[in-house]
Amino acid sequence: MQFEKFNPNQRLEKEYNGKRLKDKEGKMNRTITLMAMISILSFLFTPESFAQRGMKWHGSGNWGPNTQYGRLYNPQTMETISGEVASVDTITPIKGMSSGVHLLVKTVKETISVHLGPAWYIQRQDMKIAPGDKVEITGSRITFQAQPAIIVAELKKGTEILKLRDGDGFPVWSGWRRR
User: Fold this and answer.
1) How would you classify residue 114: left for phi > 0, otherwise alpha for psi between -120 and 50, otherwise beta?
2) CB neighbours (10 Å) of residue 147?
3) What's the domain count of the chain?
4) What angle do CA 63, 176, 171 make, to 5 degrees?
5) CA 164, 167, 169, 175 torsion: positive or negative?
6) One domain, residues 80 and 163
7) What is the 8-class DSSP label of residue 168?
8) How are beta strands 111-118 and 134-144 bridged, if at all?
9) In this structure, how many other beta carbons lie within 10 angstroms of the beta carbon of residue 22?
10) Is residue 82 located within the same domain as residue 25?
11) Is the domain of 78 the same as that of 46?
């Protein structure tokens, strides 16, 4: 049995010449091809994720000005009332809407239902409203579910003012969509 003398340079020449070199080139080509495929696929699926197709966009929760509920607001029926908040609730005015903040306000003449706006907007305001608060409300008097109600444009509590709609009844939470 003969043993070959170990020569490190000779071994390197054998590894990089012939099959070993071809294997490394093949692995590198496969890696580049795989990276290119991943890049192409990521570009194909990126617009879909930005557009959120397949996900439901909640938007205003149907609290916008041109929705069934939004069209109830009538600038011709504006009035101002003063009274004490009897209760604060969340309601869903019309099926398919997100929840909204609702007050019962006791005035000298009546106890009336008062609709502020979407809960996701009202709950993020600095002004907090609680039963027992004295308030002044300006808004559109409507008939909602056969009962009188007011859709609020502006609510005053002490020196605080919460503006919810402009003079035409356009909701402030929809302001970026205007025009």
Assistant:
1) beta
2) 9
3) 2
4) 35
5) negative
6) yes
7) T
8) unpaired
9) 10
10) no
11) no
Residue 179 has pLDDT above 50, yes or no: no
* 47-79 pLDDT per residue, tens: 554 544 444 444 566 666 677 777 788 899 999
Q: The tokens of 130 are what?
A: 């609680």
- Beta-carbon count within 10 A of 110 CB: 10
Domain of residue 140 covers 70-177
pTM over the 0.85 mark: no
DSSP 165: B
Whether 35 and 85 map to the same domain: the answer is no
20 confidence band (pLDDT: 50, 70, 90): low
> What phi, psi does 74 have (nearest 5°)?
-130, 110
C-beta separation of 166 from 88 below 8 A: no
Q: For residue range 99-127, list pLDDT tens digits in order.
A: 889 999 999 999 999 999 888 889 999 99
Are residues 78 and 157 located together in one domain of the fold? yes
